[in-house]
Specification:
The structure is a single chain. Strands 1, 2, 3, 4, 5, 6, 7, 8, 9, 10, 11, 12 and 13 form a 13-stranded mixed sheet that branches. α2 links the parallel β5 and β6. The protein is mainly beta. It has 3 helices and 13 strands; from the N terminus they run βαββββαβββαβββββ.
Amino acid sequence: MRMDWHDLLFMHWRVDEDQLRRHLPDSLTLDTFEGQAWVGVVPFRMSGVSLSWLPDLPWLSKFPELNVRTYVVGPDGRRGVWFYSLDATNPVAVRGARWLYCLKYMDAKITCVEDGRPAEDAWIRYDSVRTHRNEPAATLKVDYRPVGPAFRAQPGTLVDWLTSRYSLFSASANGQVFRGDIAHDPWQLRDAEAVTHENTMTDGIGVKLPATEPLLHFSRITKVSASAIRKVK
């Protein structure tokens, strides 16, 4: 598949390892940075979402998405991302991704708008309310914007460890683990500031976010290609 990610905000908190580990398949190992575990809440919007050989479909290819994620090492030794949830507004994409990628996509009502200032300085208002039947309620209401110049995270730094992940892991109902790989140019990141009005995105998995401010980073646009998933032995 191919897609573009727009106005992406990385919100990261250090959390207790046990809170994250209990929701992972046994064959995945929680990855840590200098002994610390991290959870991320990542709002953004997508465009150009399609199978690589198909044109964009206006009713399918453009929608906002919101991820809750942590970082793992697979049984194959590959470092990647584990998604606790992926909320999106497009019901076709939600069901297709649950089927094709074994990912926990969920229906949500999401709006993502800028405040009318020049694009480089604009605040983005992102409001998401989960609507998926028989799934825990979850809400994110946050205003955010980039600040400072763009940069590439240096290898070995925490920012690079959090963001430079080119694999995702998922699992089927019977516990079979899969891995999918993505490709994109190195992140063009900026620091960010945010005002969070409500955030219950981790309540459903029993992860309590600390009262401290999250580590924030912003990316304006990233072009991405994604492979099909395959079984991990």
